[in-house]
Design brief:
By secondary structure, this protein is α/β, with parallel strands linked by helices. The protein contains 15 helices and 8 strands.
Length: 384
């Protein structure tokens, strides 16, 4: 955020050095916003971003409390001058260097509602710019920072890389191997406010492997042998229940194909739209995108076109596989969601992994229910 402001190169280097030097102290941000000039600078920075990005401006306005018209107050009686207050929580040398290195710039003209936003209402948005490890350190720094990090806005959007996912799933396996805890009681690094997050991105870890040497059963409980199954078990229990957009990457093809029908009507049953496709150039990995956006359901003709388009024809494979038979509307929805699958004869398979087959009867049995549910939601969303 600081790098986007029009500071001098020397000022930018100084600020970057100061911030990097203080990020080891998890309470740095919480203490920094106590300082008046720094608070003013952050407010100007937020207004500058809002003037450049309409979406960010709407985000700021959405999280700012409504301000009532100020009432006239009688001037207070003069008070006796007190002794100087205690030194500020942030180091004075640091604050002086911070002011000299990056003075508050002039923000561009924005809406009147952005003119005098209290920084206290924007603190979660400021914290949301921190990387996940810094957020975790900040949440354990002090009571004030704990209250700040208990707000969903401080974690929005939540991005878990493979290391963070390993830490989360391993800790959940240790504390709750049978999945009986409610998400509000999950141990750290999970937070109760994660159930309120709207945008969640998860990169799955690589699965744990069994150790070659003998290990006790108690030491193997924490092993995550199937990351997508473990994550979906937590999703079904209500973890990330408020997510409007969920992205999962690095999913093993064999494990996802074996359980896709079950998971679609289980952990992902509340998402009207879902797309499962190859993760980049790696044919052994999938990525999944699920969101709460109602969309038009595909027709039989569209399903037949998808099946014909994906039918494998390289290296004489069309002579080994039967051409697709009739495609129903429910099967068309399946092909629209699972973009790596095609229909051959009376079964579905991934052309890159032909050994795993899903009978079309199983697809129709599950997707008839799903299509009926989505059709009801689509009709309810239409304006009357």
């Amino acid at each position: 955020m600081f790098g986007q402001m029009p500071c001098s190169p020397v000022g930018q280097r100084s600020v970057a050095h100061l911030i990097d030097a203080q990020l080891g102290d998890a309470s740095f941000l919480a203490r920094l916003v106590q300082h008046g000039p720094t608070k003013s600078y952050l407010a100007e920075a937020l207004k500058h971003l809002a003037s450049q990005d309409a979406d960010f401006a709407r985000l700021v306005l959405a999280h700012a409390p409504s301000r009532a018209k100020p009432r006239a107050k009688t001037p207070p009686a003069p008070r006796k001058r007190r002794a100087p207050a205690k030194p500020t929580l942030a180091p004075r040398a640091l604050l002086a260097d911070f002011e000299d290195a990056c003075p508050a710039p002039k923000a561009a003209r924005v809406e009147a509602d952005l003119a005098e936003l209290p920084l206290a209402s924007l603190s979660p948005q400021v914290a949301s710019y921190l990387p996940l490890p810094a957020k975790l350190r900040l949440s354990n720094a002090s009571r004030g920072s704990q209250r700040l990090m208990s707000l969903a806005g401080a974690w929005e959007p939540l991005v878990l890389d493979s290391n963070a996912t390993r830490q989360l799933l391993t800790r959940l396996r240790q504390a709750d191997p049978h999945g009986v805890l409610a998400p509000q009681h999950y141990p750290p690094p999970a937070r109760p406010c994660w159930t309120e997050l709207k945008d969640v991105t998860v990169e799955l870890m690589e699965p744990d492997r069994l150790p070659r040497e003998f290990s006790r059963a108690s030491s193997m409980v924490s092993l995550v042998m199937d990351p997508i199954e473990e994550l979906c078990r937590r999703l079904a229990a209500g973890c990330f229940a408020g997510a409007r957009c969920l992205n999962i990457s690095n999913i093993e093809v064999s494990r996802m194909d074996a359980r896709f029908l079950e998971l679609r009507l289980g952990a992902f049953k509340d998402f009207p739209r879902l797309i499962l496709e190859q993760d980049g150039l790696d044919v052994s990995r999938y990525r999944l995108h699920a969101c709460h956006r109602v969309h038009a359901l595909p027709s039989k003709a569209e399903g037949e076109a998808l099946a014909a388009q994906r039918f494998p024809r390289q290296q004489g494979m069309e002579y080994l596989l039967s051409p697709p038979e009739m495609v129903t509307e429910s099967e068309a929805l399946f092909l629209q969601e699972h973009r790596a699958m095609t229909k051959t004869g009376r079964s579905f398979r991934n052309p890159q992994h032909l050994w795993y087959v899903i009978p079309d009867q199983d697809v129709r049995q599950q997707y008839d229910v799903l299509r009926q549910k989505l059709a009801t939601q689509a009709s309810a969303a239409l304006p009357s």
